[in-house]
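Title: Comparing notes on inverse folding

I've been comparing how different people in this forum approach sequence design from structure. To keep things fair, I'm posting one structure and asking everyone to reply with a full sequence. Here's the target:
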């Protein structure tokens, strides 16, 4: 049996559970001609910071890029920076002859343990980051990375010797990646990490991987170039709106000019990487990821409220929509379901109130979509469907319906159900009747003579269906929905199988 060829991913570098970090590590390859990018990794020991950059450097070197080097910031010395000073007998001056391992000779560079550097070295790094020079002498480095452990403080005394970066140095870091620790990986990835314990020193890039690397960068650079032409103006407007929203929040987060420039290239760069890595992309999601990573303030011990950034992102998109819906539609170039899924799920996971989640759903109302009632209830089902986590393998048999009815009764009495019912009621109160409305087939025309009543009926019926399916997943572990498509498919197939939707609806409404 032939094995399926793996796509370009962190696993091909012997790293597991780090595909997103691996993807983002390519950002300097795209933005190098626009900004002097410095990408930072922060994480506990053993999370793969150094290994990831080192192997990416080996891969790029074998693909025809220049040499790469790794230097420990607390141990680097004069010779590491420059080389050896030698007298020039003709000019009567001193010339610098770089050693083969000098920083000035490397194209891809990792400065490890940056927050352990002496202040003297921090000054040299500042010049290196800001202008690709060391004391006025140019270096070859194009792609620059730094890595460090979390800064030691009252809450974290694990890494003795670490210190906050000088703010001037930290402000030169264009993007921050926080590495997941072992406990944050999936069980599958944890097992892969454990089983790979004997293979850590044997990795080297294969010819096929080198080719994949070249093709990935070629595609990403192509998308980045076209994205600058197509999206730069509207991304710039988005950044201006984010700055205004942050100021209005009184969050203490300031977006200055240089940081705004970094954010622009990060949005376009991540959008290009998403396109090349996943074959699909969403400019709005790329913008949110870029926004969160473009504030590395924690490196100089200045906390940034990520929820404030998310709120600024949401409000900025909403304001752009109010100002120019056609422009926002161009910015939001993916389906409603792709957009709203992330925001509503995050809101529910963050413990927002029923009222706030309902307002968020209403804000995403698809006025001109084919089936507004269906899409709106899709948004509600996202909130309710957070419990779905197992893949659907089968549907219920008719003889299992009694078991399911009992599950419905139990579920109706617990707190989870009451919470979802509360969301449903708040949503129905805040939902606005859309100008374009498609009549669902199941609505009885005789009992709902006007469109507004019909709309309310469809809302209630859809939400009952959501709760119906939730109960199903509670009782039958073999069923699951990982996305709305799975969730809806599961409901429809199951409802068709049991053929008893009306009796289940009566159970929910409390009728006998």
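Reply #1:
Here's my take.
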């Amino acid at each position: 049996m032939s094995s399926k060829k793996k796509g370009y991913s962190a696993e091909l570098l012997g790293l597991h559970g780090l595909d997103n970090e691996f993807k983002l590590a390519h950002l300097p390859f795209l933005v190098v001609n626009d900004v002097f990018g410095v990408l930072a990794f922060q994480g506990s020991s053993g999370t793969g910071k150094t290994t990831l950059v080192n192997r990416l450097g080996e891969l790029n070197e074998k693909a025809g890029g220049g040499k790469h080097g790794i230097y420990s910031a607390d141990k680097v010395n004069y010779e590491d920076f420059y080389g050896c000073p030698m007298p020039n007998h003709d000019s009567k001056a001193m010339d610098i002859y770089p050693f083969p391992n000098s920083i000035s000779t490397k194209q891809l560079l990792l400065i490890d343990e940056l927050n352990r550097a002496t202040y003297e070295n921090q000054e040299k790094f500042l010049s290196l980051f800001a202008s690709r020079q060391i004391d006025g002498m140019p270096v070859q480095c194009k792609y620059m990375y730094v890595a460090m452990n979390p800064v030691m403080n009252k809450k974290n005394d694990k890494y003795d010797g670490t210190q906050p970066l000088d703010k001037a140095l930290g402000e030169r870091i264009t993007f921050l990646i926080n590495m997941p620790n072992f406990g944050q990986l999936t069980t599958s990835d944890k097992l892969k990490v454990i089983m790979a314990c004997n293979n850590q020193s044997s990795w080297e890039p294969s010819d096929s991987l080198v080719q994949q690397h070249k093709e990935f960068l070629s595609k990403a650079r192509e998308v980045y170039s076209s994205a600058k032409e197509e999206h730069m103006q509207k991304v710039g407007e988005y950044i201006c709106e984010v700055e205004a929203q942050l100021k209005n929040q009184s969050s203490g987060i300031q977006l200055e000019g240089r940081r705004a420039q970094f954010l622009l290239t990060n949005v376009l760069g991540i959008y290009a990487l998403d396109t090349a890595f996943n074959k699909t992309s969403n400019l709005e999601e790329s913008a949110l990821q870029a926004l969160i990573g473009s504030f590395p303030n924690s490196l100089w011990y200045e906390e940034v409220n990520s929820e404030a950034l998310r709120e600024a992102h949401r409000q900025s998109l909403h304001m752009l929509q109010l100002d120019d819906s056609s422009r926002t539609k161009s910015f939001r170039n993916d389906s409603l379901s792709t957009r709203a899924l992330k925001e509503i799920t995050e809101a529910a996971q963050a413990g927002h109130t029923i009222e706030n989640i309902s307002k968020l759903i209403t804000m995403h109302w698809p006025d001109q979509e084919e089936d507004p009632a269906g899409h709106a209830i899709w948004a509600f089902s996202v909130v309710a469907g957070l419990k779905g986590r197992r893949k659907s393998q089968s549907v219920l048999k008719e003889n299992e319906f009694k078991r399911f009815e009992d599950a419905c009764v139990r579920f109706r009495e617990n707190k989870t159900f009451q919470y979802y019912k509360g969301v449903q009621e708040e949503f129905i109160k805040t939902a606005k009747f859309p100008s374009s409305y498609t009549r669902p087939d199941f609505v009885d025309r005789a009992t709902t003579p006007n469109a507004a009543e019909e709309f309310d009926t469809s809302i209630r019926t859809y939400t009952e269906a959501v709760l119906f399916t939730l109960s199903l997943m509670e009782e039958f572990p073999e069923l699951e929905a990982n996305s709305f498509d799975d969730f809806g498919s599961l409901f429809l197939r199951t409802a068709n199988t049991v053929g008893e939707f009306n009796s289940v609806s009566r159970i929910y409404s409390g009728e006998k």
